[in-house]
Amino acid sequence: MKENLFNRKSIAGGAVAAVLACCLVVLAGCGGDDDDGAVETNYKSWNFSFTGENAGPNGGELHLILPWSDTSDIDSIDVTVNKYSIQTVRNGDSLDIDMEWDDEKLAIDGASIGPTSVDGEYSWKVSTNDATTGSFSLYRAF
Fold first, then answer.
1. DSSP annotation of 33
2. What is the reported pLDDT for 56?
3. 37-51, 74-88, 102-116: which range is least confident on average?
4. What values do phi and psi take at 28, rounded to 5?
5. Can you tell me whether residue 136 is helix, strand or coil?
6. Would you tell me how many other CB atoms lie within 10 Å of the CB of residue 122?
7. Long-range pairs for 52-61: beta carbons < 8 A, 24 or more residues apart
8. From the centroid of its chain, how far is CA 76?
């Protein structure tokens, strides 16, 4: 009888331990979900290359960290990166970009979004001077 009672206690103790272990596994899998609806953004380095009158803003090259992994991720944004206020609007395979900093404004309308770059024409205005124009390319800096 004592042997049978010992086996029952061992089995009951093992069953309780197994139930507790399962509960711990379930609780560990239910860790706090920090996703409050925010979309995780993958910021990458992008380069603007300008050609035309006065070689465009910043001497012809502008390097920015933007929230796109590649051209397929390009979407409408309204962000400030360093001193640059940037608004973009995507319309299918074209992109409008408006940037402002200090007393300068850059406007790009209807730029073509390709597989590896965005290309188009720009208008760059400094203070009250007339705008200068030219071509640009926006591409990922790897």
1. -
2. 65
3. 37-51
4. -65, -35
5. strand
6. 23
7. 52/122, 52/132, 52/133, 52/134, 52/135, 53/132, 53/133, 53/134, 54/124, 54/132, 55/134, 56/122, 56/124, 56/132, 56/134, 56/136, 57/104, 57/106, 57/124
8. 11
